[in-house]
Amino acid sequence: MRNAEPKTIYLKDYQAPAFAVLSTALEFELGEQYTIVSSRLELQRSQGAGENAPLLLNGVDLELLSLSIDGRELTPDDYSYGDEKLTIASVPARCVLQCRTKIEPQNNSSLEGLYRSRDLFCTQCEAEGFRKITFFPDRPDVMSVYTVTIEAEQQRFPVLLSNGNLVDTQLLSGGRHRVTWHDPFPKPSYLFALVAGNLVSVDDQFVTKSGRIVDLHIYVEEKDSGKCAHAMTSLKKSMAWDEQVFGREYDLDVFNIVAVDDFNMGAMENKSLNIFNSSCVLATPEITTDIGFQRIEAIVAHEYFHNWSGNRVTCRDWFQLSLKEGFTVFRDALFSADMASATVKRVEDASLLRTAQFAEDAGPMAHSVRPDSFIEISNFYTVTVYEKGAEVVRMIYTLLGAEKFRAGSDLYFERHDGQAVTCEDFVTAMEDASDIDLGQFRRWYSQAGTPQLEVSGHYDAEKQQYTLDVQQSCPPTPGQSEKQLFSIPLSIGLLGDAGNLPLTLAGEQADCEQSDNTSRVLMVDKSTQRFVFSQVPEPPIPSLLRGFSAPVRLHYPYSSADLCQLMSRDGDGFVRWDAAQLLGVRTVQEVQLQLLHDGPISVNPLLGQACAGVLADESLDPAMVAMMLLPPSENYLAELSIEPNSVEVHSLHKARMLVQQAVADVDASLLQHRYKSLQSRQAYEPSAQQMGERALKNACLELLVSAHPDNVPLAQAQFNGAANMTDQLAALRCLVHYGGDDCAEQALADFYQQWRHETLVINQWLQIQASNPRPSAVTRVKALMQHADFDLCNPNRVRALIGAFSSNNPVNFHQSDGAGYHLLAEVIVALNSINPQIAARLLTPLTRWRKYTGTGSLMQAELQRLADRPDLSRDVYEVVSKSLG
User: Fold this and answer.
1) CB burial class (10 A; 0-12, 13-18, 19+) of residue 627?
2) How far apart are CA 85 and CA 58, in angstroms?
3) Which helix (H) or strand (E) holds 88?
4) Spatial separation of the C-alpha atoms in residues 816 and 183, rounded to whole Å
5) Which H or E run contains 183?
6) 47 phi and psi, to 5 degrees?
7) Cα-Cα-Cα-Cα dihedral sign, residues 735, 739, 745, 747
8) Domains in the chain, please, with CATH?
9) How far is CA 716 from CA 660, 680, 705, 729, in A?
10) Are the CB atoms for 447 and 368 separated by under 8 Å?
11) 182 within 8 A of 167, measured Cβ to Cβ
12) pLDDT (tens digit, 9 = 90+) per residue, 736-772?
């Protein structure tokens, strides 16, 4: 048993800091064996703080060399150090604190604070990494102006970077050099950054709308200098878009990005010095898939947009994390929609919400967008805080409209520039700018769980009226057994024989001048509501939750014929895709029931016929068609089962495969025709049109190969002749997942031989094998963990192999003997002492143990085995304890 449980931190206990840090001067002496950090903090007691309030400084794994106030050296009798806090009882109202610490970045495997990534020094300080660098009030509401001096060996570390503008460079004796950076904008410690290494820069410039020239640099290893063009283009697009859409201009003379191989996250928005996981920067058609190009563009935009929504205006405390992340995810989603297909982007976002976030809402780690408590803040960098938080902002955008939302965001930035604020401050700015009351809407920030809408409809032919009845509810979540009513924007349309019908609520006058009167947003804010539409000339099919207008589960008793009509004719792209998903779910569930009852297997042909109709319509967006063709994923199908002990993985997997094969069999010749027609000799471009065509081509290939072994040569030919990584990887996946053993092994060997020197491509090679649904996956993963290219200390490698196996290979992860669970638990034990953040994030599949038939008890046993360890990190302990509670 543990000797002491980690302390829970509560939002209700928030207290403002007793001291402000007016300025921070840091000096780093970087060395091979250790680094000396000297800090000079100009402190001032905050208004409202008591005269005897002590100074509290955070510090983890630091060797304190010296500590003084106003030049007076402090002795151990003047301070106390424990529980990761250094407390100085007697501090003047205004003073200068100087401190020298010794740290060992090369031994910092947690990748928080200052650490080494091979020959590179770099930092990651969000959320609480700065306390691993020096003693400091490491909290987001302590904002300071930073001046940073870095000294290192010049030959090994010619590039020395920090936040802000470069103000001084010096050559020193002994082959060393020194630089000084100054950031004029106050920032919290989590936005501090430092990089030192032997890097080259890819350079460009951007001219702001006011005419200022901003120097842009992407720093990479020399071997990667040819892989930065897409990231640089994405950065310039982001800067121009943010000026045009949100009126936000960049505020410094330089913007730097650095690519790092060892990084826990995708990227970090440190002021003017963004540090990126190399997978989110480096790209060429030969080594990067279409999804990779899209991901880079979105992440570059996201981190750049943080310059205002996160840096200039930051969060008061970590409970407000969605203030910056939810808002910025919304901003990057708008940007991505403008750069490509808005409909496809919306479907991708909705799919992530309905698979990952809804599952989080239904599990033991359920929390509100603004959590009430946490043990380890790193565990709350979640799809709820990010993606659901973005949906909450999107709903405000829907309710206010684009013009008033822009006015609200302008007011928010103007009112709070240079401040650390709360989610409430953001909503208040939106209310003040729009004169719209968002009082009830605020519950989206404080209540966990996924609201449910039960909808029914009735048509009165005599009155030509259609009545829609809506009932809302929300299931209990940990710590919130009772829910108050939400305000839910429900976008709807009515589909008639000739298309979507004009909408007029009873008692309203028809608006003939409205540009689109076939869709409208209903406000659902009561437990039950009735909406009556007049002048409806025929029995309609309701088109519900258009554009995924709210992150809710919606239930309506559609017939299969209704869904086919929505798939083929509705004017809303999301509804068309959603209808395909609903019909796919229904079809898979019917086949699974047949399998569980050992009955004859019969696949309803309606889904295949509807998919064939969509495939034959060459006027449709090919990316959209690609997403509609394949049945819903096994993870989504499992997530739909909300009752305990209700998911039987193996019959679900078999049922889905039978449905996929049946869809392919409906019109194999049409699949062959579309596959061949989409072959292209054009030079590769990461354009929406080309990406959509490749997506559809490869969806056709997967359907053909998974249905009939005779089509394996198609995948072999594409694999051998592919001119880009998107096509080669899609073909490899087909060969590994659906081809024979010999064919799969040869393809894997050839792929590895071709790309063994490309780190990011090897991640893809590992991922395809880890997600292979064929038997013996556990044995394969264990063998790959011993491969020379696998490194447990590298988060990208761990995610590619262990993460892909446990999250994307359910039929093998949930083996009846529990071997998959045991493998994951063993990896978590090893990572617990190496990198607790990654260990805790890998735990997610085990937290859902209550869902699974037969093997749930084995998952529970592995969690209990972890809980019984006395050495668990806070990160892992929190997830394990809540999962078992």
Assistant:
1) buried
2) 5
3) strand 85-88
4) 57
5) strand 176-188
6) -65, 135
7) negative
8) 1-198 (2.60.40.1730), 756-885 (1.25.50.10)
9) 21, 17, 10, 11
10) yes
11) yes
12) 999 999 999 999 999 999 999 999 999 999 999 999 9
Catalytic residue among 128, 303, 360, 648: 303
At residue 477, φ and ψ (nearest 5 deg) are -130, 165
The answer to whether residue 693 is catalytic is no
Q: How far apart are CA 318 and CA 793, in angstroms?
A: 27
Give me 728's structure tokens: 């080669």
Angle at 544 between CA 541 and CA 546, to 5 degrees: 125
Alpha carbons 308 and 312: distance in angstroms, whole number: 5
State whether residue 406 is helix, strand or coil: helix
Name 195's bridge partners.
Answer: 122, 161
For residues 556 and 685, what is the distance between their CA atoms, to the nearest angstrom?
41
Closest of 18, 15, 38 to residue 28, by C-alpha? 38
Indicate the angle between helix axes 229-246 and 321-339, nearest 10 degrees: 100
> pLDDT for 271-322, tens place per residue?
999 999 999 999 999 999 999 999 999 999 999 999 999 999 999 999 999 9
Burial class (CB in 10 A: 0-12, 13-18, 19+), 38: middle
Does residue 764 contact residue 292 with C-beta atoms inside 8 Å? no
Q: Which stretch of DSSP H or E encloses residue 530?
A: strand 528-533
- Total residues found in the chain within this entry: 885
Identify the residue whose tokens are 């889905």.
656
**Which residues have a Cβ under 8 Å from the Cβ of 102 and sit 6 or more positions away?**
34, 35, 36, 37, 62, 63, 65
The confidence score (pLDDT) of residue 69 equals 98
How far is it, in rounded angstroms, from Cα 17 to Cα 23?
A: 15
Q: Is residue 235 within 8 Å of 267, Cβ to Cβ?
A: no
H or E stretch covering 752: helix 741-755
- Cα separations (Å) of 222 from 216, 259, 277, 284? 17, 11, 16, 15
The label of the residue with tokens 């740290």 reads 103
Q: Return the structure tokens found at 139.
A: 């909290």
Amino acid at position 436, single letter? I
**Strand partners for 823:** none
Would you say 87 and 117 are in contact if contact means Cβ atoms under 8 Å apart? no
- Strand pairing of 35-45 and 94-103? antiparallel
Helix locations, 401-550, DSSP H: 402-416, 423-434, 443-446
The amino acid that residue 666 corresponds to is V
CA atoms within 13 A on the CB side of 622: 19
Both tokens of 512, joined, read 């003939």
Q: Which residues contact 368 (CB under 8 A, 6 or more apart)?
A: 384, 445, 446, 447, 448, 480
Q: Who contacts 559 (Cβ-Cβ below 8 Å, separation ≥6)? A: none
Q: At 152, which amino acid appears?
A: A
C-alpha torsion angle, residues 62, 269, 801, 231 (rounded to 10)? -140
Q: Note the pLDDT tens digit of each residue in 4-26.
A: 689 999 999 999 999 999 999 99
End-to-end CA distance of the chain: 16
Tell me the pLDDT band of 513, cut-offs 50, 70 and 90: low
Note the pLDDT of residue 511: 60
> Which helix or strand (DSSP H or E) is residue 81 part of?
strand 79-82
**Exposed/middle/buried for 173, CB within 10 Å: 0-12, 13-18, 19+?**
exposed
Instruction: Tell me the average pLDDT across 492-521.
Output: 86
